[in-house]
Design brief:
The complex is a heterodimer of chains A (409) and B (703).
Chain A (H helix, E strand, L loop, with lengths): L1 H17 L4 H4 L2 H23 L2 H4 L5 H22 L2 H23 L3 E4 L2 E7 L2 E3 L1 H22 L8 H20 L3 H17 L4 H21 L4 H11 L10 H13 L10 H4 L11 H34 L3 H26 L16 H26 L2 H12 L1
Antiparallel strand pairs in A: 1-2, 2-3
Chain B lengths: L1 H33 L1 H12 E6 L6 E2 L5 E13 L1 H5 L3 H15 L3 H8 L22 E7 L1 H9 L7 E10 L9 H4 L2 E3 L2 H9 L10 E3 L2 H5 L1 H4 L4 E7 L5 E8 L6 E4 L3 H18 L3 E2 L4 E2 L4 E8 L5 E7 L13 H8 L10 H4 L9 H9 L8 E4 L2 E4 L2 E4 L7 E4 H7 L2 H15 L11 H8 L21 H20 L5 H12 L5 H8 L9 H13 L2 E4 L3 E5 L5 E4 L3 E5 L4 H12 L22 E7 L7 E7 L3 E8 L4 H17 L1 E2 L2 E2 L17 E2 L5 E2 L10
Helix pairs in contact in B: 4-5, 11-23, 14-16, 14-17, 14-22, 15-22, 16-20, 18-19
The chains are: A mainly alpha (409), B alpha+beta (703).
Chain lengths: 409, 703
């Protein structure tokens, strides 16, 4: 462990000698560009979805967009800090984020927690509402990546053992249990997909992966059978299967969301001109259903661009993970891809009516402080991983090889 | 090795992300390009709300164009539950609380009114909303304009609540007429009716419609109701109106012209009520108590074509109870037996034994079946038939008299003899239901036992107690009477029960003689009697009575003329009709009606009369007057009211005086209720400015 730390310090010192580009110049253009574009697009959508809704804003049409931009600014600072942090410190901070998220999730269940939309998912502190489950995703990704990296790097044989998988699962299980207690099924689903993806990327044996899927299915069946799921949750799933079941109730969201998107057509109704959006027919439109604003007001072109931007970000994130030369970077990158990828698919799929309604935000786009912070911190982490890889690339193939070897011992 | 596997898995993740996002894009393309039209239409639907503008219902006017039913504006406060439910429980409660306070109701009461009938927690109809659950529910009707304005001005305080001006029925009541039994009433359509209408392809009704429930409002509903318009407004998800989109004006309902004359109707109603109240003060020597006089009716009909000039029924009620939603108390009263079911139109739905007013029919039957106008029969004080003694009224005896005298004096035994002879001739008490008794067949030919076909809903058929009916009645009731007959007791009921049990199916001589004087099990409606007497007046035509004359559109154009319709003819030669006609002319001069007609100019207004005092088992006698001249038929009947002329004579005379403008013994046709003492041929004139003037008379120069 000590040897490793020394070796990294040495190499990073050398980078400044060999690579003349500044950190700013070495940032990943695609990640930064797509993130910036998503943030701008998201702000416009949130603005459009909230400006005209007096019932929501209480008369001040700029209230939400101002808060959204503030959140974004805070998130960007956090992202920049993480991106610029030496990756040793990232490894040290990872457990802190994880523990913070677990404590936050614990507080949610304490009297400090608040119930919004049927879930006890929020802590209200001095006018701020924090959703620790969002941090939990980042915390679990960082925590699992760190644990698996430590365990594989420390050993001569890098193969993942059963105990490693179990330890990683244990890391995920604590926040997952707390999220289930809220209950926040959407976040739990995202977390499960992320954990599974991360384990897969970590190289977990196939039988473990198959076993996990089987266990998840069995757990779901049991939950339905035992009546653990609440009435509204089952209704949402039923309404997903048949929206005509109750168009004014459980199916209302999905029907209205689909109408809004369909109404957009090829080029959309124009920003701030969507009839569904501006008349407020889609509930939760600035948060969970923000994609419908893009669908209606920007049409296939705009909403397609949004999907493309997300895809570009994730595509690039995959490249970063593949090229990462340490286990932590690779696993954290892969975990973030799984998290963003599944959550975005879940969110947009729900708006399009091909996924059931579960309240998860669209990363980097939806209104919501905690989600924004967590997403931007994840982007910062991606940039950090990329920067480290860039540095080592700057040292040349030989050095990289040597470094990789050195880590193995 | 681990690194390779890990890289491979990352590639798999990458491919999966690509696949998932491609799926999203494909779905997006499907929704926005393939399904665009459907969803754009749905969005249009969503954002544009069609607000129905109900059409003002058509007027109902009398023959002279006087409005009997009109419309007035009433402010109605409605609650859109769809909007209210989406507000969230706290806001919803606050809004309802505020509204309840404004309306002066308790919040619970208001909550109850917003519930659809049948849903949990809903009150009984009509307090609950009996209309469509998707329509705004009226929670307060006929509120002041000030209150309505205050709700409209503070729209932001009342989401989902609105006040609108609606047209409700108004009853101008010219000359104080009520006429509610002929006019009928309307009330909001029920969901079942709406579904039924949709099922039969009738798209003229909407959830906001009120539909006719009885009388003309029901019979001519499709002409009166008009067609709703649509006000399209852009709304947000809370149903708040953002702006106007389009307006399709409603088409007002057509005006219905009736043959009712408000003057005659008013007099008929007044006289009927006066006579009934008078009878209630009169002592009945037979039963030893005052007359109950529970109900009565007057029918005035144009004898030449069956058009109804007046149709009064007592007890009656104020049609305004239906306006703006009826209260439970009012509804209970309307259906209660204690109040003698005021909803019932006695003229077309009341069944009564006709008593002696039936004798002209029997006479016509006798004179066409073997008897001659020259025949004289003994009017003895009693006649024993089949072991039973049938007495003359007040046991009077007049010796041998003609048919004419028998009718004028209303001699029972005269007709008993005929009936008994005809009964024996037809087959006596043979067990054969196919036997046609000539007097029974004759009565059927006069229209008794079948509906007249009057254009008012709910007319009843009446009953001729012939052999077939006796058998079926016996079959249906023998078990009850046989059981009753086994009990000890020798009162009428038990003796009757024993007899009935043994041969109650049999059309016995007693049945035949009772039938001849309109007693026994034969019952009819006053309108049936009016049609039959109309046939005596007009030379034999049985007219289907008509209350409505024409349908006029908003521009004053005639949409439909509702012509008189001859239902048939009575099989009586003119010679015999004339004979009966002359005989009945004598009733007012020398017969049972003479004592009420002193000073009446029968020479100029030759009214034919037949009085009747029908006995009803267990009740007091029904008072009848049947009268006609060449123009009109006037039938008056009071249940448990006493004798024909005694109870109803004065009223009948007053009605005739009104019809002809008679003062004392002077006839002044200028004072006649209807100009020239005849129902107008033409229709009232509807001017574009909405004024209605009386019909022009033929030969009268238009000024």
């Amino acid at each position: 462990m000590t040897a490793l730390a020394t070796s990294t310090t040495r190499t990073s010192r050398r980078i400044h000698v060999t690579d003349r580009r500044s950190t700013w110049q070495r940032l990943d253009v695609v990640v930064v560009g797509s993130t910036a574009a998503l943030l701008v697009l998201g702000s416009l959508l949130v603005w459009s979805a909230t400006a005209g809704r007096a019932a929501l804003t209480g008369g001040d049409g700029s209230e939400y967009i101002v808060r959204h931009l503030t959140n974004m600014a805070v998130g960007l600072v956090l992202a920049a800090l993480i991106a610029a942090t030496d990756h040793r410190w990232v490894r040290i901070w990872a457990p802190v984020v994880y523990l913070g998220a677990v404590i936050g999730l614990g507080l949610v269940l304490s009297p400090l927690g608040a119930v919004i939309n049927g879930s006890r998912s929020w802590i209200l502190v001095g006018g701020l509402s924090i959703q620790p489950a969002e941090f939990a995703k980042l915390g679990v990704v960082a925590g699992m990546a760190l644990l698996l990296a430590e365990r594989t790097e420390a050993r001569r044989s890098a193969a993942l053992r059963g105990w490693d998988v179990l330890a990683a699962l244990a890391i995920a299980a604590v926040p997952a249990g707390l999220i289930l207690a809220q209950p926040d099924l959407g976040t739990l689903l995202v977390l499960a997909a992320t954990v599974f993806g991360l384990l897969a990327v970590a190289g977990a044996p196939r039988r473990w992966l198959v076993g996990l899927v089987a266990a998840a299915l069995a757990g779901t069946v049991a939950a339905v059978q035992l009546g653990v799921l609440q009435g509204y949750q089952l209704l949402r799933f039923e309404a997903f299967i048949n929206p005509a079941l109750d168009p004014q109730g459980a199916g209302y969201n999905t029907v209205q969301a689909r109408i809004a998107i369909g109404n957009g057509g090829l080029f959309g109704q124009g920003l701030f001109h969507g009839s569904q959006t501006q008349s407020g027919f889609v509930p939760e439109q600035h948060t969970d259903f923000v994609f419908t604003v893009a669908g209606e007001e920007l049409g296939l072109v705009g909403a397609g661009a949004l999907i493309a931007l997300l895809l570009a970000l994730l595509w690039r994130a995959c490249r970063i993970a593949v090229r990462a030369d340490d286990m932590f970077g690779r696993l954290a990158g892969g975990g973030i891809v799984c998290w963003f990828g599944f959550q975005a698919f879940q969110n947009i799929g729900m708006c399009l009516g091909i996924m059931p309604v579960t309240g998860v935000p669209l990363p980097l786009v939806s209104y919501g402080g905690t989600s924004m912070f967590a997403s931007l911190m994840a982007v910062g982490l991606l940039l950090n991983i990329h920067l480290r890889t860039e540095r080592s690339i700057g040292l040349g193939v030989v050095l990289r090889e040597r470094m990789a070897r050195s880590r193995r011992f | 090795m681990l690194r390779t596997r890990s890289s491979l898995r990352l590639v798999v993740v990458q491919v999966m992300v690509l696949a998932l996002f491609t799926t999203l894009f494909a779905r997006l393309w499907y929704l926005q390009v393939v399904g665009a039209e459907t969803y754009q239409a749905a969005a249009q639907d969503n954002a544009v709300r069609d607000i129905e503008i109900t059409a003002p219902r058509g007027l109902i006017v009398d023959a002279m164009g006087r409005p009997l039913v009109a419309n007035r504006t009433a402010w109605v406060v409605t609650v859109d539950r769809d909007v209210l439910d989406r507000l969230g429980a706290a806001t919803r409660r606050a809004v309802l609380g505020r509204l309840a306070n404004t309306l002066g109701l308790s919040p619970e009461e208001l909550e109850r009114r917003t519930k659809t009938c049948g849903e949990p927690g809903a009150a009984e109809p009509p307090v609950c909303w009996n209309g469509s659950p998707y329509e705004p529910v009226p929670v307060a009707e006929d509120v002041t304009q000030v209150l309505a304005a205050s709700i409209l001005e503070q729209a932001e305080d009342y989401p989902g609540v609105t006040a609108e001006a609606r047209k409700v029925r108004a009853y101008p009541a010219p000359f104080g007429v009520n006429a509610v039994h002929a006019l009928g009433y309307i009330s909001p359509i029920t969901e079942q009716e709406l579904d039924a209408a949709k099922a039969r392809g009738d798209d003229g009704v909407s959830p906001l419609s009120s539909v006719g429930r009885s009388g003309l409002e029901d019979a001519y509903d499709r002409y009166l109701r008009g067609a709703s318009g649509v006000h399209q407004v852009a709304v947000d998800s809370m149903g708040r109106v953002l702006g106007d989109a389009a307006v399709i004006e409603p088409k007002p309902g057509h005006t219905l012209v009736t043959s009712i004359d408000a003057k005659v109707q008013a007099v008929a109603e007044r006289e009927l009520e006066r006579s009934i109240l008078q009878a209630r003060k009169t002592f009945d020597e037979v039963t030893g108590r005052k007359y109950v006089a529970d109900s009565g009716s007057v029918v005035v009909m144009d004898a030449t074509n069956g058009r109804v000039v007046a149709l009064a029924s007592y007890p009656t009620y104020d049609p305004n109870v239906w306006v703006g939603g009826i209260s439970q108390g009012d509804l209970d009263r309307l259906y209660s037996d204690q109040a003698d079911t005021p909803l019932l139109n006695r003229g077309t739905q009341g069944l009564f034994a006709p008593g002696s007013t039936f004798k002209p029919v029997t006479a016509a039957g006798a004179l066409t079946h073997g008897y001659s106008i020259k025949d004289k029969l003994d009017c003895s004080s009693s006649l024993t038939v089949g072991g039973r003694v049938f007495k003359n009224y007040e046991s009077a005896s007049y010796g041998r008299i003609t048919f004419a005298e028998a009718l004028q004096l209303s001699c029972d035994t005269f007709f008993y003899r005929i009936a008994y002879a005809k009964w024996l001739e037809a087959g006596g008490d043979r067990e054969d239901t196919s036997i046609k008794d000539p007097l029974v067949e004759n009565a059927k030919a006069f229209g008794f036992g079948s509906k007249t076909g009057i254009d008012l809903p709910g007319e009843v058929t009446g009953r001729i107690a012939d052999r077939k009916w006796k058998l079926s009645y016996w079959k249906a009731n023998k078990d009850y009477y046989c059981k009753l007959g086994k009990e000890p007791g020798n009162d009428f009921l038990h003796v009757f029960a024993r007899e009935f049990c043994i041969d109650g199916w049999n059309y016995r001589a007693g049945d035949a003689v009772n039938f001849s004087i309109g007693q026994g099990d034969t019952v009819l409606t006053p309108i049936q009697l009016a049609v039959a007497y109309g046939a005596l007046s007009n030379g034999g035509t049985l007219w289907e009575p008509r209350v409505a004359k024409a349908v006029i559109d908003a521009d004053g154009e005639v949409v439909k003329r509702i012509g008189p319709h001859a239902a048939g003819r009575i099989p009586i030669p003119q010679r015999i009709i004339d004979y009966i006609d002359r005989a009945l002319l004598g009733t007012g001069k020398v017969g049972t009606m003479a004592w009420k007609m002193g000073g009446f100019p029968l020479g100029r207004v030759p009214v034919r009369f037949k009085t009747g005092t029908a006995e009803v088992y267990g009740k007091q006698t029904t008072s009848w007057i049947a009268s006609y001249d060449e123009q009109y038929v006037v039938i008056m009947q009071i249940s448990q009211g006493g004798t024909g002329s005694g109870t109803s004579g004065d009223a009948a005379r007053t009605i005739w005086e009104t019809l002809y403008g008679i003062q004392g013994s002077k006839v002044d046709l200028r004072d006649a209720a209807q100009p020239g003492a005849e129902p107008p041929d033409g229709l009232p004139v509807f001017k574009p400015n909405g004024q209605i003037s009386p019909p022009r008379r033929t030969g009268e120069d238009p000024r």
